[in-house]
Amino acid sequence: MSxxxxxxxxxxxxxxxxxxxxxxxxxxxAGLPMEGDIDESAFIGSxxxxxxxxxxxxxxVGEVSRRVREAGWNGAMVVNERRILLGFLGGDALDADxxxxxxxxxxxGPVTFRPSNGLxxxxxxxxxxxxxxxxxxxxxxxxxxxxxRDDIPKEEATGQVKAG
Amino acid sequence: xxxxxxxxxxRRLIDASAxxxxxxxxxxxxxxxxxxxxxxxxxxxxxxxxxxxxxxxxVIAYCNDFA
Lengths: 164, 67
Hints:
By secondary structure, chain A is an alpha/beta fold.
């Protein structure tokens, strides 16, 4: 619809007209704010912790391990300069040979969630996979942050959501 | 000729005072829309766009419902 709308607006005399290709869904899946009746608190996008440890692809294990552990974490997301998620370094990887590049020890293709995933489905997945944390990315693969299992309210996680 | 935009460009243009138009059904707009978006259904552009939009500013149209 929007390509036709953009063309139609041009014929109506609007001089600078654009078509947002991804549209509403793309915006929402990137975790950006919306207006309207939607209850954003029903989605994990509302719970994302954005301050998370990261490692650039070209770093060594030693560099990352020192920085991450000094900050009190036991893992790091491996990203490129555009913050696209490329891998994950868990505790074991951080204990690997400090001279190795992170590329050699990182977990490739970690499971990721979108801000538009529901609280209940995310909690169920975490329980099923005995995972305390999920990584959240936007639809283009950009790292947004993490959600911890404890961040999901108990009544939401069990589906006991109050109406209204 | 309308230009296609991706998210980052949309955000930049909104910050630079572009107008955003949601051309979906009103029900969909009420459920959720981009911040500050104006609703004009595709079928009503001819009647409503001249009243609701400023011709001197850029206009970004979007659709793509959740369903």
